[in-house]
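During the first year of the project, the team set up a workflow for recording each protein of interest as an amino acid sequence followed immediately by a discrete structure-token representation. This format lets reviewers and collaborators read both layers of information side by side without switching files. As required by the reporting guidelines, we include two representative entries from the current panel. The first entry is reproduced here exactly as it appears in our internal archive.
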Amino acid sequence: MLPVMQVGRVRPGAPPEHDVLHPVGGGLGQARPTNNIGIHGGRTGAILLHGVLRGLLVGGLAIPSSLVLMSLFAAEFIGTMLLILLGSGVVANVVLTRSKGAGSGWIVITTGWALAVTLAVYCVGSASGGHLNPAVTLGLASIGKLAWAKVPTYLAAQLLGAMTGSVLVWLAYLPHWAATQDPATKLAVFCTAPACRHAVGNVMSEVIGTFVLVLGALAVASPANLVPGSGFDKGLGPALIGLIVWSIGLSLGGPTGYAINPVRDFGPRLAHALLPIAGKGGSDWGYAWVPILGPILGGIAGAQFYVYFWNP
């Protein structure tokens, strides 16, 4: 893990060359004061570098709220991008013609999605909470665990991250789109479709799956299970969320493909419509509202259920 960098405070009257960086939690050791024109660039370089770092790094120094929001945006964008890259990537591996993983089945797909969630949350959870899902974001906001003012930042980052991840999957499997004849198979890499089209039943499937996701995430990661500050909350939390997603996929994923995340479906569906995918068909916009509405309702319901019965 890369060390977290903090900016050393300046002693009154100290020359600029004593404004040094202190790596925390890494093996780089403590930077020594220097007057040489190297990485610090002498007095002028040190002053400029220190000024930039004061604005970009969080090391006990006050920073503008706009930078905090930008940090949240970057974290949610990157996390959702990784989620879709690896999640849609495993679908592509299983369903596209001449892929090495072709025909490996539902267990591989559900496992790939679970690992995608785990990795993505581990990567960005410390910066943004690792929502990566509007249903989670709205659910937390509905019970007061997230300020509503931050919700638009989360949602915009998640949507753009999902679209970017989809583009990367398209590039990773570039020769396979032309090799795959069925347009519906190509669409399945990007977004979900029901096994049986039934508006009420499809919505209920997404509501129930997302209800389990948000309730499980809040209950399993509650202080009663993972004591804050013990190290287990950060060390095990993302892996447990991945297990919840795996369980949902294995048990509840059959009816609709368990989107359980509005941008996981809408972002890639939009990318499918825009990308020049060889031999693609339509993007099935008539179904697109289901994996948006269902997860939002389920996420809010799961969060409310947790507050009512667990009384945190």
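The second entry, processed by the same pipeline in the following quarter, appears below.
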Amino acid sequence: MAPAWFRYSLEMFLNRYIRAYIYTSTELKKNKSKILREMVWALITKRISPFFYFHYGFYLKSQTITKIDNYITESLFYYKYLVALNQHWILLDDKNVFSQICKSEGLTIPSTVLRIKNGRILDHAGNEILCTSTFDTFLCSLRATELICKPALMSSGGEGIFKLRINVGHAYCEQTRFGFLEFMKLAHRDWIIEECLVNHSELRANKEEALNCIRVITAHPSGADPVAMYIVYKVATTSCLVDNAHSGGIYVGVNIDTGYLFSVGFTEKYEMYTQHPISGASFSGIRIPYFENALQLSIRAAKTFPSLKVIGWDIAITPSGPVIIEGNSFPGLALIQKAHQGAPKLIKFIKEEYAKI
């Protein structure tokens, strides 16, 4: 039987990359003989597989094959470099621990309403809620009208997230009452329940339901201050609550010097868009509000976790400013490399830091 990584790559190749190639306009693609020559050259001289070639769209006329060194494979990035550089990943991946550290350091994060930890329901002050009457009383004291519920441990891609609406001291998931007993059914795993945030008005037109974040990749060199290397704006395209690429989201590169979006965004399937497919809003000409504040917040956050060399910060841009949603110890590589046509600064950094170990 073929190894798991090969089966996964083959599945992605057949179901996504080849489909993207087929549906791409002929005018945008290189001719087939050139594609074949480039694939053979990449395989022999760079040990780069056809999977990788199609994954990053090197069949496009806009992609120069000699720039393939600006990219790195996911297997090297995650399983050689980050596994060594980000050994304390649990500080980010346990959202309850993460939020408590951020709060202690004065970083701007969403207000935590409830936690479910080790089978216990705790309010924001750490008091355990043991019965329905106490739970209902607590809900009546809330000013928030909507809550977002997230698995606190080992979750990614928006898995398991759902929203609750608070009305007259009762919680509802869609139209179904969600009370103390429903929360107890969640207690087989840890959860964090936070107040919902809303997008800044200049970004809200793209998708009302989901919170659209920017992903800031920070690098923390040994003996120096962290720096922000790449930024991507993530925007939802479906009715789900998250902006993740796995859920159909579009990611658009952001000029790190000016805060303006690039003119073209990409999906996980390498579909390209110059405007949002639902609202029709163009990406070109949009500047991220509070851009400088968001950069400063990411740098402060990276300083708070000095043992983690590379972090992908999801930062929401709200009407009152940037808010850290989470830090990713193994941030998505594809969205950065596709949106920025490679990540040479990040590749150089991780190789230098790895050599110091």
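For the second entry, the following points were noted during internal review. The radius of gyration is 22 Å. The chain has three domains: 4-66, 82-108+199-355, 112-195. Both points are flagged for discussion at the upcoming steering committee meeting.
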